[in-house]
Write a structure and sequence with these properties.
The chain is an alpha+beta fold and 119 residues long. 34% of the residues lie in helices and 28% in strands. Strand 1 (5-15) and strand 2 (21-28) form a beta hairpin.
Length: 119
């Protein structure tokens, strides 16, 4: 079965308005619209680095109990969590999987490793 959603666990976690720590989340695969439409956003046009914020707010469907992920929530992430999510986005949208090919340095045996966060 083709996987379109990936669970993750934030390294630090998002602190919501009530002071609760939210760590577990879900990111879906990106669509062409997810990558194209944010380019029209005035915040992205005035600051291209903001593209990451808009893009992640579109593809993350859940963080803890929060299901309405918006740019304000992504802006509130700790820098290490933002970097983690950028890396996850790149991995799952690169080839649609979180599995990497690896080779044992001792015996040369080749195998795959699932690098899904929180697995």
């Amino acid at each position: 079965m083709f996987q379109t959603e990936f669970q993750f666990s934030l390294p630090k976690g998002y602190v919501d308005e009530d002071g609760n720590l939210q760590r577990e989340g879900i990111m879906r695969l990106s669509t062409a619209a997810d990558e194209i439409l944010p380019l029209k956003d005035p915040r992205v046009q005035s600051n291209p680095a903001y593209l990451t914020v808009i893009l992640l707010s579109r593809v993350i469907t859940k963080i803890g109990t929060l299901k309405d992920i918006n740019p304000r929530i992504i802006e509130g992430l700790f820098a290490s969590d933002l970097a983690f999510l950028q890396d996850l986005y790149a991995r799952i949208n690169g080839d649609g999987t979180s599995r990497l090919k690896a080779t044992c340095p001792k015996c040369g045996n080749q195998f795959e490793v699932d690098v899904s966060p929180g697995e």
